[in-house]
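Example for tutorial group B:
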C-alpha cells in the first residue's frame, strides 16, 4: 500500500503539473485540451494517472464485493491476466493501424472487468467446498454479477453500434470479448443458483451434477459459435486471426468432449436397473469390506424395492448393484459416478 501511495502521489503531481502548464500557456479550455491531446508526453502522464485511478477503483470494488482474496484466487488472477495481456498484444497486430489512446482505454477497461468476472467464477466454484455461506455472500455475488452482466450487454451493444456506423474496426474484437464474458458469467450465475438450491435441500440432489453438466455444455456451445463468428469476421475483413486459433480449437475440443461424455453417459445409464443385477447378501458377505468406495457407506443387500429411497425410474437408489467386472456399488452412487466417468470407479 505504501508503494501504491507513493506511485499515486507522483502520478497526481505530474498530471496536475502538465494540466496546469497547458492552461497557463493556452488562452482557453478548448486549445488547452487540444494541446494535451496532441502531446505524447502529456497523454502518457494523464493515462498513467488514469491507470492509478483504475487501480484504486479496483481496490474499492474488491473490498466491497469480495473482501480478502484467497491464495488460489490471486494465483488464478496472475495466470489469467498474463494470458489476457499476451492475447491482446497478438490481437494488436491485426488492429495495428487503429492503435491509439482509445484502444488503450478500451483494453484497460476490458482487463479491469475481466478481473471481476474471473473472481466471480472462482467464488461460485468455491461454494461446494464451503460448509456454511453467510447472507452477505449472496447479496454481494448477486449484486456484482448483475452489474457485470449489465455492463457486458451495454458494451456489446455499443460495439455493434460503432461497427454498424463506422464499418469494421477494433470494436469487433471488444464486442466479441464482452460476449464471451457475458456467456461465462451467466453460466456462473446458473451454477450459483444450483449450488444455492442444493444447500437448502436436506437430502442429496442427485440431478445437480447433470444440470451443471448441461449448463457447461450450453455455455461451451455459445462460446464456440461466438469464436467461429469472430474468426470468420476477422478473416473476411483483416486476414487470418492467428491469436484465436488456439481458443477456437480448445473450445471446440471441450464442446466435442462434453458431447461424447453425454452420449456415453446416456448409453451407460440406459435401463440401469435391468442391466446391472442387484448384489445378493451372499455376494456382499463374500466381500472383505462391504463398503461402497464412492460414498464410503456400508452396503446392505435388499430383496425387492421399498417405497422410501426410490429413484425416478422406480428403483431403490440404495440397493447395491453389481457391474460386469464384479465390483459392487450403491445404485445412486454408480449413477452419479457415471455422470463424470464412464468406467468402473476402481479402474
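The residue assignment follows.
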Amino acid at each position: 500500500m505504501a508503494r501504491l501511495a507513493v506511485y499515486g502521489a507522483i502520478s497526481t503531481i505530474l498530471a496536475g503539473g502538465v494540466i496546469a502548464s497547458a492552461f497557463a500557456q493556452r488562452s482557453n479550455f478548448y486549445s488547452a485540451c487540444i494541446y494535451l491531446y496532441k502531446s505524447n508526453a502529456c497523454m502518457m502522464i494523464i493515462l498513467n494517472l488514469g491507470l492509478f485511478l483504475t487501480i484504486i477503483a479496483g481496490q474499492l470494488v474488491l473490498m466491497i464485493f469480495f473482501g480478502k482474496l484467497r491464495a488460489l484466487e490471486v494465483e488464478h488472477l496472475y495466470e489469467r491476466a498474463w494470458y489476457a495481456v499476451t492475447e491482446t498484444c497478438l490481437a494488436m497486430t491485426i488492429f495495428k493501424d487503429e492503435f491509439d489512446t482509445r484502444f488503450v482505454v478500451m483494453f484497460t477497461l476490458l482487463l479491469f472487468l475481466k478481473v471481476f468476472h474471473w473472481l466471480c467464477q472462482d467464488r461460485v466454484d468455491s461454494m461446494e467446498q464451503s460448509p456454511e455461506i453467510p447472507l452477505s455472500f449472496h447479496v454481494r455475488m448477486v449484486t456484482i454479477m448483475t452489474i457485470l452482466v449489465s455492463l457486458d450487454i451495454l458494451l456489446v451493444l455499443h460495439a455493434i453500434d460503432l461497427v454498424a456506423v463506422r464499418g469494421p474496426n477494433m470494436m469487433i474484437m471488444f464486442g466479441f470479448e464482452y460476449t464471451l464474458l457475458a456467456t461465462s458469467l451467466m453460466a456462473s450465475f446458473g451454477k450459483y443458483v444450483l449450488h444455492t438450491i442444493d444447500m437448502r435441500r436436506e437430502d442429496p440432489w442427485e440431478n445437480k451434477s447433470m444440470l451443471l453438466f448441461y449448463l457447461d455444455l450450453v455455455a461451451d456451445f455459445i462460446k464456440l459459435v461466438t469464436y467461429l463468428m469472430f474468426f470468420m469476421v476477422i478473416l473476411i475483413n483483416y486476414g487470418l486471426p492467428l491469436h484465436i486459433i488456439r481458443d477456437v480449437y480448445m473450445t471446440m475440443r471441450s464442446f466435442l468432449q462434453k458431447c461424447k461424455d453425454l452420449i456415453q453417459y446416456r448409453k451407460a445409464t440406459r435401463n440401469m436397473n435391468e442391466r446391472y443385477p442387484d448384489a445378493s447378501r451372499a455376494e456382499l458377505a463374500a466381500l472383505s469390506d462391504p463398503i461402497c468406495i464412492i460414498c464410503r457407506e456400508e452396503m446392505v443387500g435388499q430383496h425387492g424395492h421399498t417405497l422410501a429411497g426410490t429413484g425416478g425410474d422406480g428403483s431403490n437408489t440404495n440397493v447395491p448393484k453389481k457391474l460386469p467386472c464384479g465390483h459392487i456399488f450403491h445404485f445412486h452412487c454408480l449413477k452419479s459416478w457415471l455422470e463424470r466417468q464412464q468406467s468402473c470407479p476402481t479402474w
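The longest strand covers residues 320-322. Compare this with the pattern of hydrophobic and polar residues in the output above.
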